[in-house]
Amino acid sequence: MRSNFSIRKAAKLNNSTIKYFQQSEYEKAKQAASSAISIIERKLGSDHPYMASLLNNLAMIHQTQSDYDSAERLFRQSVGIMEKVEDEDIRMKNLHVQSLIGLAGICRTKGRYSETENLYRSAMAIAEQLSDDLLLASVLNDLGIVYKYQGRFDEAEELYLRVLPIIEKALGPEHYEVASVYHNLGGLAHSRGRYADGEPYARRSVEIRQKSLGDDHPDVAADMAALAAILDGQKKYDESEQLYQRALEIFQKVYGDEHYEIAVNLNNLGAIDYDKGKYAEAEYKYKRALEIKEKILGAENPDVALTLNNLASLYKSQKRYEEAETLYRRSLSIYEKTLDPTHPSFISCRQNYNKLLLIMGRKI
User: Which CATH homologous superfamily contains domain 274-364?
Assistant: First the structure.
């Protein structure tokens, strides 16, 4: 009887974890999740599938707070548990997929794209055994994001367009999960430099999620930032800057000042300052974005290389050539380790560096 009482207590703590997470009370959510994990580990053992579910929840909280190392450790522990489960129950397979998706998302953020693709493919193989179109669509959508980051744009588009009608049919065209696919289609168009094509997708994403989640939700802020990037590409700087600033306000309110999304928005606002000739403001924002990215992603992440390239271009414009050269070389070194040589970001950085060498009278 005492054991059943403890398990019920853990279940209540898990419910509290979810409630606090949805309310953005992350410290309370972590405390509740950790307490639930302690109970289940003591009563059912560290390899029980219920542990995997609780570990996933705690990992997602750390992920939301940009604590990617802790999140990775927890997701790996969860995947390890599920790999030992021989039960063919649909719920167990679903949980295994969720654990793989969680770990893959962390690896993607850390720039380990080959490992990420392998994890998503493992998740896809299990999901295909289940009669759950939405679960499979979720995996395919995430795999599309990896392809975009790898510069495999046609493959990404094929997956997004495959996923969109599945989610619309299952959940309706106004569901916030539909907005995720529109967000990704807009981001893909941005990566291809097809900014006008991406704008309708990005605006639709903002519209759907604002209706579903309200104006101050971080997912809405992410959609605003994606739309801002597309407008920036079309030189619509005023609306773009307003959207970036609004997104930044939401992210700071929800996450504080040391979060990945803060760094992304500062980098992008720095790019607008650069385009407007506000070099001092651009330098400050680039440096702050770089500081946050290096802290939470590590020094060898392709996202770090992106900001290094931007800051180097700023220095080149100011004729600070030696400083620019150092940053370009570091950016290229990261890209060489993480991206295919044909990736647009790699190509752009290499071209920028070559132009700098010509200015400096150096051989390419």
Answer: Tetratricopeptide repeat domain (1.25.40.10)
